[in-house]
Amino acid sequence: MQHIVAALTLSVSVYICLWTSVAYAQTNELSAWEEIESRGSNQDVYFHAWGGDPQINRYIQWVAEQVKQQYQINLHHVKLTDTSEAVSRVLAEKSANNDNNGKVDLVWINGENFAAMAKHQLLTPNWAAQLPNFALTDPDNNPAMSRDFGVPTQGMEAPWGKAALTFYYDSRATLSAPQTLQQLSAWVKQHPGRFTYPKPPDFLATSFLKYALIVLNDSQPEAIKHLLYQPATTQSQALLLPVLWQYLDELHPYLWRKGQHFMASGMELRRLIGDGELALAFTFSAAEIPAAVARFELPNSSRSYRMLDGSLSNIHFVAIPYNAAHQDSAKLVTNFLLSPQAQAHKQQANVWGDASVLAISKLTGEQQAWFAPPKLSHPSATIANQAISPALSEPDPSWSKVISALWLERYGVMP
To answer: How high does pLDDT run on average in the chain?
Structure first.
């Protein structure tokens, strides 16, 4: 009996010790975040993000209002034409040995620029997992939350949203829009001058070209197709690029202005659709279409869809430069960006329409209700056939640079 009592006493003691250790660890973790909240409040945060879409700009302004209320943070949206502007600024600061007082606190980033900043050690490492709301993305069961264009983020980025290449058209100008890349070629020949794409290195331009590159090489052996997800080499370019150039050579004479002029920005596509010059265009923000219809920027006859041979899809991230002057404040802003409140608001079509990166299973019942699809004022303009369009993974970031450079050599200077 004494042995049993002693054993029970020992078991209880071990349990208490384990419980105390867990509670201590959780308290320390909470204290660490509370320290970040204490240091990061009442500060300025300079958020360098693309400023070409009014909807996105308004959403960031809403975020600024929220973090002002919660943390007394003054969030300044530094509107960029291209993310490379922020990369160049941080690189210049590093060259000037400005390692502690950088002017970029937070940057909205894509795979190519992430790879460049990581290569030059321009980003703060191992901070994303510090955010309490990062756990809501379920990173252990969702590895895409920790990979940018296939490159491990190593905690240098936090996911912000998901997007996929979406096409849209004016149903008054064409009754049947092309459903595949090959159909697009035939459609353009039947409707000369009614389609185009921007000039690289514009993000939408390279997105369209990468979509075409993946689809055109779909019949290649797996070993060759896999080269798209490795750094581009002279050999892999020779194997994969010729079919893209052949396709574009045949397509360009039938584009808007006979392929002799390409707009600098993807945002101009929507304007040309609204003006009636184009009948078909594409975007990386599906909710842009019904929202533009509601603002009378696109006709009520606008329809959106995804190609049946695949939609280039990616997750976009935010990052903190290594020398950001207000790193803790930037973490507070990012944690709010990952909150169910902010993600649900962002997902609304009339706000932005950017898909959430949160795992719904990680949310409470009340929070899950926030993500229920709303009734739209222009449902006919919302995306069709989303479920049957395969998601195409982004190639290695090096391909964006290679495609842009070679495209400019081949098509950039017109007679």
So the answer is: 88
